[in-house]
Write a structure and sequence with these properties.
Blueprint lengths: L1 H5 L5 H8 L3 H10 E9 L3 E8 L4 E6 L8 H13 L6 E4 L5 E5 L26 H5 L12 H13 L11 H22 L6 H16 L1 H14 L4 E3 L8 E5 L5 E5 L6 E3 L1 H11 L4 H12 L2 H6 L8 H26 L18 H9 L6
Helix pairs in contact: 6-11, 7-8, 7-13, 8-13, 9-13, 10-13, 13-14
Organism: Shewanella maritima
InterPro entries: Aminoglycoside_PTrfase, CcrZ_PhaseVar_Mediator, Kinase-like_dom_sf
Pfam family, one: APH
Length: 371
């Protein structure tokens, strides 16, 4: 039943991945799976909900274009988070890490949550640069706390308290990693700009690359500020947008957030995690201020960041969106040359408007403060 149910959703290559799962696991799913539904067609993976007797599961098949991701490190960091109940359980993964099976977490809302706590955390998604975040950022003495900010600050401190992953990368190293990859692809995009079928999109890519190159003096300042604010790295997720966060409750009924998608998780700069939260969550000025204050006043933050780290937050937000632009340009190049995916669609809960990788890059570029 399982194979027949999921077959309509899969490409031939994806079906082969499923069919090579362990026979005992396939047999178990054949017996328990009653329905399959698409969860999302992610930017680097496809996810399916398996409605099973005894508990639903998530089948994830990673895209070939995600070769840049260290899947072994992803599994390592996922399991570190699960050990502290900060992630769903990874039930099985293929030896080549192309296929994962994990628990499906049904978002739950405890009866004592404040009104501003949203059960569907993805509805908090927004794209905010420094202008949007800090233009109305004024002192607010209200006693009423944003419970959303409380949960986010707690999630950050718990994640940053996890054991260090086996690999680490600084913000400056991450920038150089992206930049060198873009440089390596520039020549073939220049060649593609001379062909009829890819000329327009390749020319657009080169124009965006030029803008990034012109930004380098500013980028160096942002990176220097980030480096100066760090005492020592910690466990970081690096992509804490609302689509990667699940509201849940503890066994005691207390509200808690869990994370998914550990593709970028590594030992790194905690301010980048904070930036990924405030840049992608629709928080008002009061909640944003509270989140920053609560996190920076935590013992874990104070052990990893300098006393003046707050002054580097704008740089962290700019770098978050800069890396998003660079990532989108790399993904476009991979898609173009592997004849993979010209357009990508966000989760079904979002607008059904499709965006190309270049559209993402252009969109993210507008969120970088150029002053």
């Amino acid at each position: 039943m399982f194979i027949e149910l999921i077959k309509p959703y899969l490409t031939h290559a994806q079906l082969k991945c499923v069919q090579t799962m362990p026979a005992a696991l396939v047999e178990s799913l054949e017996q328990s799976c009653q329905q399959v539904s698409a969860l999302s067609h992610g930017l680097s993976n496809d996810n399916f909900r398996l409605h099973c007797i005894g508990g639903d599961k998530v089948l994830r098949i990673n895209r070939q274009t995600s070769e840049w991701c260290d899947r072994a490190l992803e599994v390592e960091t996922w399991q570190l988070a699960y050990a502290q109940e900060l992630a769903p359980k990874l039930l099985w993964h293929a030896a080549d890490y192309q296929t994962y099976l994990s628990e499906f977490i049904v978002p739950q809302q405890a009866s004592n949550l404040d009104e501003d706590t949203i059960n569907d955390w993805s509805s908090l998604y927004a794209e905010r640069g420094c202008r949007q975040i800090f233009s109305t950022f004024v002192p607010d003495e209200r006693e009423q706390k944003s419970f959303t900010a409380v949960l986010l600050a707690s999630m950050l401190t718990e994640l940053h308290s996890l054991p260090l992953p086996s690999k680490a990368i600084s913000t400056s190293e991450q920038y150089q990693n992206y930049w060198q990859r873009l440089l390596a692809r520039k020549a073939r995009l220049e060649a593609a700009s001379q062909t009829d079928d890819a000329a327009k999109s390749a020319t657009e890519w080169l124009a965006l690359f030029k803008q990034l190159k012109e930004m380098q003096p500013r980028v160096e300042g942002w990176l220097a500020q980030m480096d100066a604010s760090l005492i020592k790295p910690c466990y970081c997720h690096l992509d804490l947008n609302p689509y990667n966060i699940l509201p849940n409750t503890t066994v005691c009924g207390q509200p808690r957030l869990q994370c998914i998608d550990f593709e970028y998780a590594i030992a790194s700069h905690p301010l980048f995690d904070l930036a990924s939260v405030i840049a992608t969550h629709d928080l008002d000025a009061h909640a944003t201020q509270q989140l920053i204050s609560d996190y920076l006043s935590s013992t874990i933050a104070q052990s990893h960041l300098t006393n003046d780290a707050v002054s580097a937050i704008e740089s962290a937000v700019n770098l978050f969106w800069l890396f998003a632009v660079m990532w989108a340009l790399l993904m476009f190049d991979m898609a173009l040359y592997e004849s993979h995916l010209d357009e990508i669609h966000r989760d079904e809960t979002q607008s059904d408007k499709s965006l190309t990788y270049l559209d993402y890059a252009k969109q993210y570029l507008t969120l970088i403060a150029m002053r």
